[in-house]
Amino acid sequence: MIGFKIHARARKADSRIVEQFRNLPVANVSDVMSRMTAGGAALRPMHDGTPMVGPALTVKCRPGDNLMVHKALDLAEPGDVVVVDAGGDLTNALIGELMTWFAASRKLGGIVINGAIRDAATIKKNPFPVYAAGVTHRGPYKDGPGEINVTVALDGMCIEPGDLVIADADGILCVPFDYMEQVYQEASEKHHAEEKTIVEIEEGRLDTSWVDARLRNLGCEGL
Hints:
Elements: E1 4-6, H1 15-21, H2 26-32, E2 44-45, E3 52-61, H3 67-75, E4 81-85, E5 93-95, H4 97-105, E6 110-117, H5 120-124, E7 130-135, E8 146-148, E9 152-154, E10 157-159, E11 164-168, E12 171-175, H6 180-202, H7 209-217
Parallel strand pairs: 1-8, 3-4, 4-6, 5-6, 6-7
Antiparallel strand pairs: 2-7, 3-8, 3-11, 9-10, 11-12
Helix pairs in contact: 2-6
Pfam family, one: RraA-like
InterPro entries: RraA/RraA-like (IPR005493), RraA/RraA-like_sf (IPR036704)
Keywords: Lyase, Magnesium, Metal-binding, Methyltransferase, Transferase
């Protein structure tokens, strides 16, 4: 049936690449991806802020219904990030304290809800990563339909099953499976360059001459 099916996940980011990305800021990764990809500013950390990284297990469900989210938590493997596209609807919460505890007990990498959660105060105290678009006390329905391991889109950012999903206080980003190695190398170089810049700032030797040069090239008057 179209729209009501559990698909197999053919591939996923392995533990080696997950660990490589774990200490990279999302902003650095975003920069080397041409700043063209983002999960949307609405998706915010609802937990204590611990960064998140892991392969995506995707869920597409009807707004307000979490039947397929429950099944996804059963199917997910340790380290997986369950990414739920619920259309951004905030009318009904799709997960709360109990489902979050269950996911943490199974050692998942985190949960992304393009929709609402509840039990926000409890979730906020804990390190298990939960990113969502909002909060409401109204609970979900469990009637379906929905699909697991299909392509989903969060604010225009497409996520394929098995892609790498990373997130921190700046938001969520998907690194496509076929580009993970390249993106890691470039983002790592970017991160090291910024660490050197911080040292230059601390030592009072940061060269900012590029600012005036850029303004002149753009035709700014008054320099």
